[in-house]
Structures are given as C-alpha cells and as structure tokens.
Amino acid sequence: MKKTFQVDIVSDVVCPWCIIGYKGLVQAIHEMGIADLVEIEWHPFEINPDMPPEGEERTAYSARKYGATPEDSARSRIQMTKLGTELGFSFDFFDGMKVVNTQDAHVLLEYAKEQGLQTQLKLRLFSAFFTERKDVSDRAVLAREVEAVGLKVNDALAQLDDDAARGRVQAQEAFWHQQGVSGVPTIIFNQSSVLTGAQPVEVYKQVFTQLIRNAEPLNE
User: Fold this and answer.
1) What is the Cα–Cα distance from 71 to 59, expressed in whole angstroms?
2) With CB atoms 3.0 to 4.6 Å apart as the test, which of 17, 85, 137, 160 could cross-link to 100 if both were Cys?
3) CA 46/CA 184 separation, integer angstroms
4) CATH of the domain at 36
5) CA-angle at 86, arms to 80 and 87, nearest 5°
C-alpha cells in the first residue's frame, strides 16, 4: 500500500496535552509499522493570544481560565507527568512556572515548515518549555532553539519582524477557529476523522486501522 496518510495537528507549544497526544500518536504509528505512510503537519493555535509579554504564573492562570483550584492544578500536573513518563517525555513543572505568549514561536514554526524542519522545531520547543524551564516567548531563547535544529538564525528571526509572515499565522489561526477548533490538540486524519484532546494509543490505532481499511480498495 502506497497511500500516504495526512495528519494535521492543531496545537500550541505551551499545551502539555499537545505533546502527550503527539507522543501517543507516534507510538501508535510505530507500533503499527506505518511510519513511512504518515505525513504530519503542525498548525498554529494560541491558547492565550492575549497573554502579555511577562506571562502568567501557571496556577493563577489555571484558576482564572479554567476555575481550577490549586489542588486541581497539582493533581493535573501529577497526571500529566505520569502520562509523559509512560510516553517518553519528561515534564518539569516548577513553582513560579509561567504560561507565556507563543505567537513568535508559531511564526518560526511556519518558517521551519518551509525548510522541512517543522516537527524538529516543534519538539525542541516542547522540551525547552516543559523540560528545560525555558521561556519560549524570549527571542534569545527562540534563536538558540532554531539554531539547535539546523535553521539559519538570522533568516528565521527576520520572520518575526515580517508583517506578512505574522499575518499568515494569524490567518491560519482564524481558519481553524472558523472550522470549529476551540481546544487543542485537535488532530485531523486525511481531512476527515477528527480527534480532540490527547487520546490513548489504542484510539489512534483504531483510526489508522479504519483509514487503512478504507484505502485498500484504492490500491488494488
């Protein structure tokens, strides 16, 4: 079977469930032996488009946005850390951790897509924020991360001052909102099947199994 499965992931780099969902997706792909059949593309979504430059302390943010108590937040962090460990990703939640603005990161991810390094940069930013305690809204941090994945730093950072590049990201975000995406991760398989939120590995396998079943008559 030669058919490629297109997987579009709408996500934000400060969304812990986005990296958990991606790791589960990748585990399903590898366990099914279909890595060479799957093409993944990331799409921008800002959980907090109005987040100020100084960011917001995570517990206070969760209380304001979701009505979560400190106890709720603590339980959630424990759950996410456990899931991350099971999937091979390390979360390091710490006192004073801030949620930050991510529009610059999304602009750079679009540039990285043009260079064939989008997933590499996306994973680098997830690790920078959740594992290495880095502020991914800081342009100095972003410069080091784009360099780490092999992008030309000056060319990449020039995108941040390019109104057209920023406008393209904002247009994409508007498109996904118009499509009804209100939470991330949202994962679209072959522009048809849609899953919202991080799902168990078996759920991703079920989707791919159905896609393979549907594709087989096309390749006879």
Assistant:
1) 10
2) 137
3) 9
4) 3.40.30.10
5) 90
Over the stretch 43-88, which tens digit does the pLDDT of each residue have?
999 999 999 989 999 999 999 999 999 999 999 999 999 999 999 9
pLDDT number for residue 215: 80
Task: Give the C-alpha separation, 100 to 123, whole Å.
Answer: 17
Secondary structure of 120-160 in HEC code, one letter for each residue: HHHHHHHHHHHCCCCCCCCHHHHHHHHHHCCCCHHHHHHHH
Q: How far apart are CA 59 and CA 88, in angstroms?
A: 25
CA 84 → CA 2, 10, 78, 126, 188, distances in Å? Answer: 32, 19, 10, 12, 22
What six digits make up the tokens of 179?
A: 């499509």
Q: Is the CB of residue 202 less than 8 Å from the CB of residue 17?
A: no
Q: Please check the confidence at residue 14 and state whether its pLDDT lies above 90.
A: yes
List the domain range (segments joined by +) for residue 186.
5-219
Local structure of 92: helix, strand or coil: coil
